Amino acid sequence: MSYDLIVIGTGPGGYVCAIRAAQLGLKTAVVEKRKTHGGTCLNVGCIPSKALLHASEVFEEAGHDFPALGVMVGKPELDLPAMMKHKDDTVAANVNGVGFLLKKNKVDAFHGAGTIVAPGQVKVTAEDGSTQTLETKAIVIATGSDVAPLPGVAIDEKVVVSSTGAIALDKVPGKLLVVGAGVIGLELGSVWRRLGAEVTVVEFLDRILPGMDNEVAKQFQRLLEKQGIKFILGNKVSKVETAGAGATVSVEPAQGGEAQTLDADVVLVAIGRRPYTEGLGLEQVGVALERGRVVIDEHFQTNVPGIFAIGDVVRGPMLAHKAEDEGVAVAEILAGKAGHVNYNVIPGVVYTQPEVASVGQTEEEVKASGVAYAIGKFPFTANGRARAMRHSDGFVKVIADANTDRVLGVHIVGYGAGEMIHEAAVLMEFGGSSEDLARTCHAHPTMSEAVKEAAMAVEKRAIHI
Ligand code: FAD
Ligand code: NAI
User: Record's family (predicted)?
Assistant: First the structure.
């Protein structure tokens, strides 16, 4: 069997790449070793975590916010198996949807582990051990990433869990200890806190969400603390013992010092993810890696002609939409078009309550670049719609170049921040200024008016503060 393109891995990077290539007339196949398509994101990542975040948020609202709105439904009861079924049904609908889309676009799907035996040759080893070798003009590696382990700590997915175990617990842990105050720790920590767990997050650095704007992270931490999450910053977990039920966890100051011991029913290890290239045969064909990541040029090509790579397995943020856009870009390049990804405008969202959303540079990054900048901020307490919905936590921060007024970064903590951030992304994609944003009519009453007011505040002309 001979193809124009074989994509290894059908996560958001791989399946989107295959569909775009097929749309452009390339004879395309995918190889996937999981039973279902969709990769980490659809099977055990973005989609199941958002199903649980939504359901647990509704559970908490019913208990805490409904009475203040005059809606009396009594104390809500948790049916965890039903909540997990909602998550599983959501995953099934999404992964089946990808299977359907591949078929619709006439992409051949092979189930099994893909190995590159030579440029232009991919061997597929099925679960039963049978193999077949496919010929192709180009190969795209889209094999994603896997959980980064904590040295000396074994993940059993029952007591010591990764995100995969944490989205499938069969009861609410009394005490959940989260290692790492990154996106996974805060999202899944929020889920289980809302459902009744006492949640403590241990973070190596002296702040949460490294990489996010500092001021945003600080205010967000205060909001999470108000919700009951405890933080132990500047500390690391040095040992986890799991004799009997639960775990005993040793926590040490990052700079050295006396360790403290904490008990937990479940420990969630969420200290990052690492690129996944096992069994791909990269050493054999000479594809270069750097700190585990496949090295690519600006056209997504590795050092071996005809072998390309995208998504979590290459440099850049480990985000589904970044992988998707790279998938589209490389497919377009392979079809002779000008595929491109603008890495300066990739939004990032933490899907907690409130959400945190960000696009472009943080204030710390702008400061470090030496560019003179101006900032406009607007709090949701001054937004009518936010008050009407009792969602007035958080603020919008717009950072613009002080000389040209070009928007360099927008950061939002607030209800629905993950949806609001896209007007900033579109603006930045067009090289827009804070004045462009400030002069754009925004519907009233909406949360998005706070984005406009923050842009107006860059020139100190916000109306409602
Ligand atoms: P993956 O989705 O990891 O897919 C790679 C696929 O390749 C897998 O299906 C794997 O089985 C297959 N594969 C690997 N090796 C082989 C082989 N040799 N042969 C055949 N197949 C192979 N990102 C967001 O943007 N938003 C979110 O809300 C979000 N939430 C997340 C929540 C969690 C709990 C986790 C863990 C991650 C989350 N992410 C989120 C990150 C997101 O899942 C990844 O960035 C995204 O899945 C990367 O896509 P990918 O296509 O590069 O790889
Ligand atoms: P992360 O990189 O976001 O956070 C890991 C945190 O663990 C960091 O704050 C780090 O300082 C800390 N840490 C590292 N070693 C430690 C130690 N020994 N002790 C204590 N703390 C330690 O990684 P996370 O949360 O595991 O997520 C992995 C990836 O998945 C992220 O890169 C993210 O992009 C992606 N993801 C995205 C989501 C989204 O877009 N909403 C949701 C979930 C995951």
Answer: Belongs to the class-I pyridine nucleotide-disulfide oxidoreductase family.
